Amino acid sequence: MRSLYGPLFFFGFIGTATILASLGAGFAWLLPLLLAAIAVSATCERLWPYRPFWNRPQKDTTRDVLHAGVNESLNILSVSAIPLIAPFLPNLGIWPSHWPLAWQLLLAIPIADLGITLVHYASHRSALLWRLHAVHHSVTRMYGFNGLMKHPLHQLLEALGGTLPLLLCGLPQETTALLAFAIAIQLLLQHSNVDMRLGALRHVFAWAPVHRLHHLKYGSNGDVNFALFFSGWDRLLGTALYLPGYELADDDLGIGDCPDYPVAYTEQLLQPFVGPQASHPPAVLPPGLRDALADHAQL
User: Fold this and answer.
1) Is 29 helix (H, G, I), strand (E, B) or coil?
2) Domain total for the chain?
3) pLDDT (tens digit, 0 to 9) for every residue of the chain, 299 residues total?
4) Which domain holds residue 207?
5) Bridge partners of 194?
6) Model's pTM, two decimal places?
7) What span, in angstroms and rounded, lies between the C-alpha atoms of 241 and 246?
8) What is the dihedral of CA 7, 11, 14, 18, to 10 degrees?
């Protein structure tokens, strides 16, 4: 199951959503399907945890529920507003709307992935964008549900980077809804605490064994593995990193130079505008991680 979990979760939920949409079932069922995915993710994290400690709440449960609730509500409103916004956007009319929904989604995902990845990459190089993105990096444990934890303004920027080019091409509302669902499923997999085994799939999908390294708290050592869906973008950016010989410790995650980053939801919304972004020297690399990075550099 550790090897099958990623593919079954990804293709199972996204495939089910696509089939139901293709059958004309509407989109009211997308939210219940997402809730089912969250429940499956939480259950499997307890059956096969990567770090058992990360399954324990750290006064962050209410905060994560608020983040997810607000951000997914905004996604629903954004998709619902497309018919109202579309008349004010130039439409190049080049989107293949006559294709089956499955093929449209297969085309939309890599295009959106590139835009979101570039916004993410820029967020680690722009001090202004980092203020917003730091909210997501303040997590000190990774489990699927907190993949949905982002500052809503940063989520808006990523959404614009990923979907605006598609909307200008004429992406239909139903395909946009499926794309938003697929992104939520991918975020659950990226931040999963399931001890999944990727094998060769690590070269394709940016799931948790790859993405965990992006959340390392040790200064710029976490500036790797930016891609949302596909690892290939990081190879093109020169930011791909995989350390199969290093098992993350319970306390390897967070923002090392700002260990006192606020935990409460409202405080996190305000932090980018009023609070200091760094208050300590970067955290010191543990010997095991230092050796793993040195070995990787020699490859």
Assistant:
1) coil
2) 1
3) 889 999 999 999 999 999 999 998 888 889 999 999 999 999 999 999 999 999 999 999 999 999 999 999 999 888 888 777 777 788 888 999 999 999 999 999 999 999 999 999 999 999 999 999 999 999 999 999 999 999 999 999 999 999 999 999 999 999 999 999 999 999 999 999 999 999 999 999 999 999 999 999 998 999 999 999 999 999 999 999 999 889 999 999 999 999 999 999 999 999 999 977 888 888 899 999 998 998 888 76
4) 4-297
5) 49
6) 0.95
7) 12
8) 180
